[in-house]
Specification:
mainly alpha; abc type-2 transporter like fold; 2 domains; four-stranded mixed β-sheet; elongated
Length: about 350
């Protein structure tokens, strides 16, 4: 283990892989990924030009979700949508105020660019909610509603997306870089021929895996502390409740990630193959099949079965609970157990592969 740590400290490329790339990943994912659409360009065609129609328009833009886009022409709404200048268009008819004052229904046409279905759904729901609020606040709602829903956001009342995104970024980073380092270290022994000396010595497969794993587990602890502290400083994260599940589950998740990297390293024959193996099977699954961006319920069968054996999926639940929900052990008691079980499976498969190589030598 000391030899592994000394070699790690001398290799600048490995140091950059361990700390610089996770830092850049945290910045890119933490600041670039936004699930809630904002600053949506909208063009308004107000044919009524009355104080009431202008008040309705002001209410739409008061949500800070839309940005007004000016476009001239005979049909500015449709032209702006066709040319991609706006994502939504509001057409207010010339009899808007007159029909409302007469107690009749005034129809406002809303055109939405449906190229992005999620964005279109957000625009539609926002315009509907804003219109209902405008009617109720202006005393234009017909009749008295007997059911009033008073909605309160639980856990994240400020709607900070960082509370959802950044804990997931922790899982993605720690699911890719520690196993990548471990896999490269294992393959390096094969490329340099030193693995033959290990086979000829009295070291068993368990001792070799334990020595490699412990060295890179300590490095992974440093990576985790580095990334989590940076996340807290840059995005204002702090524990929402009992932090002990997170503090207990993080080392278990790191050990599982290291064992997965050693498993890939025992199977790969070159460093490039090890990098591709970890990147393909580790990064893509942690990004797409863990619930980081897309809800697990949206993953179709049979890929939904694969998500059950992805360690990052469970660590994301643990991290989001620690920084957003704060339910503690009653909500995530099973996560460390599943992570430990997956780690034992990875260790067993890596041990079998290493034993087979020893016997073949």
């Amino acid at each position: 283990m000391p030899q592994e740590l000394a070699q790690f400290g001398r290799d600048r490329l490995t140091l950059a892989l361990a700390f610089l790339l996770p830092f850049m990943t945290l910045l890119i994912f933490g600041y670039a990924i936004r699930l809630e659409a904002k600053n949506i360009p909208m063009v308004i065609q107000n044919l009524d030009r009355s104080p009431l129609s202008r008040a309705y328009i002001e209410r739409l833009f008061a949500t800070n979700q839309f940005v007004q886009t000016d476009w001239a022409g005979s049909d500015p709404a449709r032209t702006a949508l066709d040319r991609g200048i706006a994502k939504a268009a509001i057409i207010i008819p010339p009899d808007f105020t007159r029909r409302i004052k007469a107690g009749k229904v005034a129809t406002v046409q809303v055109l939405v660019d449906g190229t992005d279905s999620n964005n279109a759904r957000v625009i539609r729901n926002s315009v509907r909610a804003t219109t209902n609020f405008f009617l109720s606040s202006s005393g234009l709602q017909p009749g008295a509603s007997r059911v009033i829903a008073r909605t309160r956001l639980w856990f994240n009342p400020g709607r900070k997306e960082s509370l959802y995104i950044v804990p997931g970024v922790f899982a993605v980073i720690l699911a890719i870089f520690p196993p990548l380092l471990a896999a490269i270290a294992m393959v390096r022994e094969k490329e340099q021929g030193t693995i033959v000396q290990v086979y000829a010595s009295s070291l068993s497969a368990v001792e070799l895996l334990a020595g490699k794993g412990l060295a890179y587990f300590l490095i992974a602890l440093g990576e985790a502390a580095f990334v989590i502290v940076l996340g807290a400083l840059l995005f204002g994260l702090w524990f929402a409740g009992d932090p002990t599940p997170f503090l207990v589950g993080t080392p278990i998740f790191l050990a599982t990630s290291i064992l997965y990297g050693l498993l890939v390293g025992t199977r790969a024959s070159t460093q490039s193959a090890a990098v591709q193996g970890v990147a393909t099977s580790g990064f893509l699954t942690a990004l797409l099949l863990s619930g980081f961006i897309y809800p697990l319920s949206n993953i179709p069968f049979p890929l939904s079965l694969l998500s059950n054996v992805i360690p990052a999926r469970y660590y994301i639940e643990l991290a989001r609970d620690a920084f957003a929900r704060g339910t503690g052990w009653p909500g995530v008691w099973y996560v460390p157990l599943i992570l430990a079980l997956l780690g034992l499976v990875f260790f067993g498969v890596a041990w079998r592969g290493l034993r087979r190589m020893q016997m073949s030598e």
